[in-house]
From TrEMBL:
LSm subunits form a heteromer with a doughnut shape. PANTHER family: LSM1, U6 SNRNA-ASSOCIATED SM-LIKE PROTEIN LSM8. Gene3D superfamilies: 2.30.30.100. This is U6 snRNA-associated Sm-like protein LSm8. GO terms for cellular component: precatalytic spliceosome; U4/U6 x U5 tri-snRNP complex; U6 snRNP. Belongs to the snRNP Sm proteins family. It is found in: Nucleus. PROSITE patterns: SM (PS52002). One of its GO terms (molecular function) is mRNA binding. GO terms for biological process: mRNA splicing, via spliceosome. It comes from the Eukaryota. Residues 2-78 form the Sm domain. Keywords: mRNA processing, mRNA splicing, Nucleus, Ribonucleoprotein, RNA-binding, Spliceosome.
Length: 98
């Protein structure tokens, strides 16, 4: 886990990003700028459903505009690797309303 503050401490680590439209994108943070636009590598979107397991859509190298980001969080890769995504059920997130 990181021990610094801000996005600088998360560069080259796996993070989870929740966007304003409710998407959950996981990838390795490669860079960011003053507007919090971020660059993720090896990324995928996790699509949640109450009827079937979590789908993981491969995105690869991906850029997310800072004004579309709600939450950026560090991902515990060891814990995440033990999750069986095919058995997880959850309601999709609703969009953020400002």
């Amino acid at each position: 886990m990181s021990n610094g503050t801000g996005l600088e401490s998360l560069v080259d680590q796996t993070i989870s990003v929740i966007t304003n439209d409710g998407r959950n994108i996981v990838g390795v943070l490669k860079g960011f700028d003053q507007a919090t636009n971020i660059i993720l590598d090896e990324s995928h979107e996790r699509v949640y459903s109450t009827k079937e397991g979590v789908q993981q859509l491969v995105l690869g190298l991906y850029i997310i505009r800072g004004d579309n980001i709600s939450i950026v969080g560090e991902l515990d890769e060891e814990l995440d690797s033990h999750l069986d995504m095919s058995k997880l059920r959850a309601h999709p997130l609703k969009p953020v309303i400002h």
